[in-house]
Amino acid sequence: SGRMLIATAGLPGAGKSSVAEELGRKLAAPVVSVDPIEAAMWRAGVTRSQPTGLAAYVVAETVADGVLALGQSVIVDAVNAVEEARAQWRALASRHGVPVRFIEVVCSDPAVHRRRLQGRSRGIEGFPEPTWEAVERRREEFAPWAGHRLVLDSVLDLSRNTATALAYLAAVS
Asked: pTM value?
């Protein structure tokens, strides 16, 4: 059928949302992003002391499940730093009998990554942009990969990375 679950991964500010959104446009596939879901929970009054990060992943999974049930591909935009998160997407794809494809976005130049992070404003109401220090802590928590993934370096042009990702997805679909 060609449908699949595409899960992006990478540190905040690495460029994964840009890749996910561009792939969404090119593939006419919805993008389910964890950060706006978590921000919506906070705006709804769920306190930050609650496990809203985990809850946002569960809500994203539910939305992606509905999209796959309609027979469409879906793109999940999330950090996916730990194996439990990655296993969640593998299990969802398995339940629907579709492949899951991971695309990790890195920024190989720390100075560029830091500048991007400090200069970005995604306009997600109630969602503060993480500090460089928070990203560095997240980097230390990032679990090694157990399975196959495409790694894109966001110091390269977005159109080039998108073309690489599309070729990867076409080759494995």
From this structure: 0.93
